[in-house]
């Protein structure tokens, strides 16, 4: 039990769709890598009562990432997101390892443009596979958008909405505003 203030009530009224845990606290996630301190960091995060742990690497399809996901799922009752993935096989392997969700970038509007990313067509195969296996797909949209690119971004978001991806990760306010205004059914996470 904790103290509830007028500010808490005002924020609940102002932001009714904020994601909260069973105790009414804002959900909190944190990332670990695959370095030698990953298990110590994971334990500290679980002890701090984070709601989700992300195994976050530039190339999420590696033995270290798969082993980290397996170890976390074996030892803790916590949701695990893994990525950044670049292939369909990576999605399959991470979901088999126990990832509750995987995240991927797109060919367009992704900060990791030099890394391999997904096309909408490829995602059309991965999203149903993930859902069939009780996992989620999150799409990262984390670049600044120029004015002349807005129509293309909205077009891509419409296609992603039709694919029924589970959430967007957005780094910049411009993308976040578009998503919250026009695509309210798909959750938005800060990146």
Task: Looking at this protein, list some descriptive labels.
single chain; 191 residues; alpha/beta; 7-stranded parallel sheet; 7 helices; 41% helix; globular
Percent range for β-strand residues: 15-25%
Shape field = globular
Q: What is the element string, with H for helices and E for strands?
A: HEHEHEHEHEHEHE
User: What distance separates the N and C termini?
Assistant: 30 Å
* Main sheet attributes: strand count, strand direction, barrel closure: 7 strands, parallel
Could you characterize what this model shows?
It is built from seven helices and seven strands; from the N terminus they run H-E-H-E-H-E-H-E-H-E-H-E-H-E. It has helices at 6-14, 38-47, 63-75, 88-97, 120-132, 150-163, 173-182; strands spanning 29-32, 52-56, 79-85, 101-105, 136-141, 167-170, 188-190. It has a seven-stranded parallel beta sheet. The protein is globular and about 45 Å long.
Q: Brief overview, please?
A:
By secondary structure, this protein is α/β, with parallel strands linked by helices. It has helices spanning 6-14, 38-47, 63-75, 88-97, 120-132, 150-163, 173-182; strands at 29-32, 52-56, 79-85, 101-105, 136-141, 167-170, 188-190.
How is this fold's topology laid out?
Elements: H1 6-14, E1 29-32, H2 38-47, E2 52-56, H3 63-75, E3 79-85, H4 88-97, E4 101-105, H5 120-132, E5 136-141, H6 150-163, E6 167-170, H7 173-182, E7 188-190
Parallel strand pairs: 1-2, 2-3, 3-4, 4-5, 5-6, 6-7
Helix pairs in contact: 4-5, 5-6
């Amino acid at each position: 039990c904790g103290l509830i203030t007028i500010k808490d009530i005002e924020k609940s009224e102002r932001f009714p769709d904020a994601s909260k845990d069973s105790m009414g606290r804002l959900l909190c996630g944190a990332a670990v890598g695959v370095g030698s301190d990953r298990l110590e960091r994971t334990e500290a995060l679980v002890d701090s009562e984070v709601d989700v742990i992300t195994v976050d690497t530039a190339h999420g399809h590696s033995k270290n990432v798969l082993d980290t996901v397996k170890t976390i799922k074996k030892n803790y009752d916590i949701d695990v997101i893994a990525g950044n993935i670049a292939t369909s096989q990576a999605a399959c392997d991470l979901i088999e390892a126990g990832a509750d969700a995987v995240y991927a970038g797109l060919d367009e509007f992704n900060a990791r443009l030099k890394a391999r990313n997904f096309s909408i067509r490829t995602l059309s195969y991965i999203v149903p596979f993930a859902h069939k296996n009780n996992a989620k797909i999150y799409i990262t949209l984390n670049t600044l958008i120029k004015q002349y690119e807005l129509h293309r971004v909205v077009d891509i978001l419409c296609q992603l909405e039709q694919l029924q991806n589970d959430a967007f990760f957005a780094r910049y306010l411009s993308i976040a505003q578009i998503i919250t205004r026009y695509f309210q059914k798909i959750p938005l996470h800060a990146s």
